[in-house]
Recover the amino acids of this structure.
């Protein structure tokens, strides 16, 4: 199970998912690195053999694949000797990789990300322990585990070893236009009561607080729970994730939902979200500036780069508190942590090649290029300049995480709802559209959790996001 020394990490006792019945029975052989024939050296610590064609599969999502192509070039330059790297994009990882795992021909390394990622529990025994990768030096001559933010290595630790190497630091926060706020003399709110006051000012100028789209209404679940965690402590999300009866009725959760219900009733959301495609809703915020805020991960700037108004100055802001006087965490606390996991299959033709690719990827040159291309930070420290490559979003992401200090927590990247297959998104669409009340939503979430708890077909995890 994943183990971690920081709030950002998840401790989960992993168990085999249904997919494991398919994949585990067809597991390929153990690590092939011993028989690859290469000679290890300071420049080639994993011993990638001459003329090896390293096979890399990359999720082609919001971050694209150009960063991986760049890292591939670094590997080819570093090793020479006829070694090449093939980057294969994929929009559907389970569909493209499951047959390869079953057939014993998985890639040398891959990103396990996106809506169709392969459940880690289903392939856990088929992945290389990356302990030697973390202990080796990157292309800067720095031990990889020392080159990344504290706690990053531990997030990928399972009972079978270090199976994942997460690459991107993802911040979940409110996003707003700094230039629009300056133009109107507005200050971003730190409490829900200030948020309500700002809604009144926004409506006076024919604007709204929030926009939402039908596929991403759950982003506002993240906002609600992040705010509730800050108010009531990390046990708020621990109890919800562990399917504890009544967890959704926790006063911190209920009070935040009541605040959001008041905003919905006061016409603070752009109308029609239930019928709006989510990127169109995001464009209502980033391009049309109908809404002041949008809640999302720090991929938002890259995702909306072609639909953002000139001079927008996209800026991150923490979730508001109910009452700072009795909050468990300070206002500056945010949800942020490592995401976009990379893994190396044991049955890969070149596990050495897979690890060598990661060695390049976790070097400063590749990490800095990733941030320049995607305007998102990696886990490699010291790779984003103060100006965020000209991006206010990236600069503010780094600033918000720095302001939070140790008050970081992370749960979305490995959430209970994804593991248990809880289909709660339709209820959030109905809630944000004003069709059901906060109490209706709580009741629906409680029923879904109870059903998941009673379902014996799915092994239970124990979640602990830190104290």
């Amino acid at each position: 199970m994943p183990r971690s020394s920081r709030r950002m990490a998840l401790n989960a006792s992993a168990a085999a998912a249904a997919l494991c019945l398919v994949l585990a029975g067809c597991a390929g052989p153990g690590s092939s690195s011993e028989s690859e024939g290469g000679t290890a050296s300071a420049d080639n610590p994993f011993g990638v053999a001459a003329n090896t064609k390293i096979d890399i599969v990359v999720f082609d999502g919001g971050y694209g694949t150009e960063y991986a192509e760049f890292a591939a070039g670094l590997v080819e330059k570093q090793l020479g000797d006829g070694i090449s790297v093939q980057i294969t994009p994929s929009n559907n990882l389970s569909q493209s990789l499951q047959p390869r795992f079953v057939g014993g021909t998985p890639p040398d390394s891959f990103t396990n990300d996106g809506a169709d990622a392969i459940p880690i529990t289903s392939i856990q025994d088929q992945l290389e322990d990356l302990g030697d990768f973390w202990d080796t030096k990157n292309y800067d001559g720095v031990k990889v585990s020392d080159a990344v933010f504290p706690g990053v290595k531990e997030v990928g630790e399972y009972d079978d070893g270090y199976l994942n190497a997460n690459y991107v630091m993802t911040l979940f926060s409110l996003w707003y236009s700094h230039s629009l706020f300056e133009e109107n003399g507005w200050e971003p709110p730190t409490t829900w009561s200030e948020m309500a006051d700002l809604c009144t000012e926004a409506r006076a100028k024919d604007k709204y607080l929030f926009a939402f789209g039908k596929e991403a209404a759950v982003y506002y679940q993240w906002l609600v729970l992040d705010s509730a965690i800050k108010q009531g402590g990390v046990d708020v999300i621990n109890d919800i994730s562990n399917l504890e009866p009544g967890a959704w009725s926790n006063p911190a959760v209920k009070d935040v939902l009541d605040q959001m219900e008041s905003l919905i009733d006061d016409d603070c959301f752009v109308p029609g979200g239930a019928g709006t495609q989510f990127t169109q809703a995001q464009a209502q915020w980033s391009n049309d500036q109908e809404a002041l805020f949008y809640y999302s991960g720090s991929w938002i700037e890259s995702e909306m780069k072609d639909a953002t108004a000139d001079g927008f100055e996209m800026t991150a802001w923490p979730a508001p508190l109910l009452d700072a006087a009795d909050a468990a965490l300070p206002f500056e606390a945010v949800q942020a942590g490592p995401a976009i996991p990379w893994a190396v299959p044991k049955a890969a033709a070149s596990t050495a090649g897979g690890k060598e690719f990661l060695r390049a990827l976790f070097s400063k040159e590749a990490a800095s290029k990733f941030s320049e291309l995607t305007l998102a930070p990696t886990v490699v420290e010291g790779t984003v300049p103060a100006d965020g490559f000209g991006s206010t979003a990236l600069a503010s992401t780094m600033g918000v995480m720095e302001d939070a200090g140790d008050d970081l927590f992370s749960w979305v990247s490995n959430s209970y709802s994804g593991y248990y297959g809880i289909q709660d998104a339709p209820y959030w669409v109905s809630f944000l559209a004003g069709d059901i009340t906060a109490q209706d939503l709580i009741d629906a979430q409680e029923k879904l959790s109870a059903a998941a708890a009673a379902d014996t077909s799915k092994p239970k995890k124990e979640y602990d996001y830190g104290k």
Remarks:
- The chain has a mean pLDDT of 91.
- Residues 139 and 363 are 5 Å apart (CA to CA).
- The longest helix spans residues 438-454.
